[in-house]
Amino acid sequence: MENSISPKEGKIIDQAVIRFAGDSGDGIQLIGSEFTNATAISQNDLGTFPDFPAEIRAPVGTLAGVSGFQIQFGSHEIYTPGDNCDTLVVMNAAALKKNLSTLKSGGIIIANEEGFDAKNLRLAGIEAGDNPLKNGSLDNYELHTVNVSKITREAVSGLGLGTKEADRCKNMFVLGLLYWLYDRPIIPTENFIQKKFAKNADIASANIRALYAGYNYGETAEAFNGRFEIKPASIPPGVYRNITGNIALAYGLIAAADKAGLQLFYGTYPITPASDILHELSKHKNFNVLTFQAEDEIAAISSAIGASYGGALGVTGSSGPGIDLKTEAMGLAMMLELPLVIVNVQRAGPSTGMPTKTEQADLLQAFFGRHGESPIPIVAAQSPSDCFFAAYEAAKAALEFMTPVILLSDGFIANGSEPWKFPQSAELSDITLRNNVGSRDMINGKYYPYQRDERLVRKWALPGKAGFQNRIGGIEKEDVTGNISYDALNHQHMTNIRKQKVENIAAFIGEIQLDNGKSEGDILLLSWGGTYGTVKTAVIELINEGIEVSHLHLRWINPFPSNLRDILSSFSKIIIPEINMGQLALLIKAQFRSDAIQLNKVQGLPFTVKEITDFVRLIES
Amino acid sequence: MENSISPKEGKIIDQAVIRFAGDSGDGIQLIGSEFTNATAISQNDLGTFPDFPAEIRAPVGTLAGVSGFQIQFGSHEIYTPGDNCDTLVVMNAAALKKNLSTLKSGGIIIANEEGFDAKNLRLAGIEAGDNPLKNGSLDNYELHTVNVSKITREAVSGLGLGTKEADRCKNMFVLGLLYWLYDRPIIPTENFIQKKFAKNADIASANIRALYAGYNYGETAEAFNGRFEIKPASIPPGVYRNITGNIALAYGLIAAADKAGLQLFYGTYPITPASDILHELSKHKNFNVLTFQAEDEIAAISSAIGASYGGALGVTGSSGPGIDLKTEAMGLAMMLELPLVIVNVQRAGPSTGMPTKTEQADLLQAFFGRHGESPIPIVAAQSPSDCFFAAYEAAKAALEFMTPVILLSDGFIANGSEPWKFPQSAELSDITLRNNVGSRDMINGKYYPYQRDERLVRKWALPGKAGFQNRIGGIEKEDVTGNISYDALNHQHMTNIRKQKVENIAAFIGEIQLDNGKSEGDILLLSWGGTYGTVKTAVIELINEGIEVSHLHLRWINPFPSNLRDILSSFSKIIIPEINMGQLALLIKAQFRSDAIQLNKVQGLPFTVKEITDFVRLIES
Amino acid sequence: MSDLLNPDTLSGVLENPASSFTSKDLVTDQDVRWCPGCGDYSILKQVQTVIPQLNILKENIVFVSGIGCSSRFPYYMDTYGIHSIHGRATAIATGLKTSRPDLSVWVVTGDGDALSIGGNHFIHLLRRNPDLNVLLFNNQIYGLTKGQYSPTSLEGQVTKSSPLGVVESPFNPAALCLGADSSFFARSMDRDPKHLQEMIKRSAEHSGTSILEIYQNCNVFNDGAFFIFTDKETKPMETLFLEQGKPLIFGESRNKGIRLEGFTPVVTDLNAAESSQDDLWIHDERDYVKATILSRMFDNNYMEGHLPRPFGVFYQKDRPTYENSVNLQLEESVTSKGRGKIDDLIRGNQVWEVK
Amino acid sequence: MSDLLNPDTLSGVLENPASSFTSKDLVTDQDVRWCPGCGDYSILKQVQTVIPQLNILKENIVFVSGIGCSSRFPYYMDTYGIHSIHGRATAIATGLKTSRPDLSVWVVTGDGDALSIGGNHFIHLLRRNPDLNVLLFNNQIYGLTKGQYSPTSLEGQVTKSSPLGVVESPFNPAALCLGADSSFFARSMDRDPKHLQEMIKRSAEHSGTSILEIYQNCNVFNDGAFFIFTDKETKPMETLFLEQGKPLIFGESRNKGIRLEGFTPVVTDLNAAESSQDDLWIHDERDYVKATILSRMFDNNYMEGHLPRPFGVFYQKDRPTYENSVNLQLEESVTSKGRGKIDDLIRGNQVWEVK
Ligand SMILES: Cc1ncc(C[n+]2csc(CCOP(=O)(O)OP(=O)(O)O)c2C)c(N)n1
Ligand SMILES: Cc1ncc(C[n+]2csc(CCOP(=O)(O)OP(=O)(O)O)c2C)c(N)n1
Ligand code: SF4
Ligand code: SF4
Ligand SMILES: [Mg+2]
Ligand SMILES: [Mg+2]
Question: Is the distance from CB of B343 to CB of B318 less than 8 angstroms?
Answer without folding.
Answer: yes
